[in-house]
């Protein structure tokens, strides 16, 4: 299930290491397989990125791929992107992310 959550995310977009750049955004919702990411610019579907998510226990880094992007900005001027999570960089990253999702499940159960 998807959980509404606003998490600060720094995305490193890298077609090639020499041309990588960072874009700051935040999530609109999160799930085990992906997230809704709001960014100040459109990023093309199929783009791979590294995501640094600022979770309450500390940052976790994951690899993701843009599955879709909304062509019109939200009222806040940001563009919505559907991101598929492809894996986590740290050994404990997946476990930390699962704990965070578990906390969100507890909160929404109230």
Give the secondary structure arrangement, pairings included.
Blueprint: E1 3-4, E2 8-13, E3 21-30, E4 34-39, E5 48-55, E6 58-69, E7 79-88, H1 93-109
Q: Mind summarizing the main beta sheet?
A: 6 strands, antiparallel, barrel
Query: In terms of structural class, how would the helical and strand content be classed?
Result: alpha+beta
User: Cα-atom Rg, whole angstroms?
Assistant: 14 Å
**Estimated share of beta-strand residues:** over 45%
- Count of runs of 4 or more consecutive helical residues: 1
Classify the helix fraction into a percent range. Answer: 10-25%
- The stretches of 5 or more residues where confidence is low (pLDDT under 50) are none
Distance between the amino and carboxyl termini: 16 Å
Order of helices and strands: EEEEEEEH
The coarse overall form would be globular
Number of separate strands: 7
- Main-sheet strand order equals 2-3-4-7-6-5
Write up what this structure looks like.
- The structure is a single chain.
- With 110 residues, the protein is of the alpha+beta class.
- It has one helix and seven strands.
- It has one helix at 93-109, and strands at residues 3-4, 8-13, 21-30, 34-39, 48-55, 58-69, 79-88.
- It has a six-stranded antiparallel beta barrel.
- The radius of gyration is 14 Å and the shape is globular.
């Amino acid at each position: 299930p998807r959980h509404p959550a606003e998490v600060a995310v720094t995305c490193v977009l890298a077609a090639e290491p020499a041309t990588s750049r960072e874009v700051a955004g935040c999530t609109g919702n999160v799930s085990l397989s992906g997230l809704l990411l709001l960014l100040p610019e459109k990023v093309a579907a199929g783009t791979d990125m590294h995501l640094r998510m600022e979770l309450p226990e500390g940052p976790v880094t994951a690899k993701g791929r843009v599955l879709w992007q909304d062509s019109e900005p939200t009222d806040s001027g940001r563009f919505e992107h559907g991101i598929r999570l492809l894996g986590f960089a740290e050994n404990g990253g997946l476990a930390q992310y699962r704990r965070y999702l578990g906390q969100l499940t507890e909160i929404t159960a109230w």
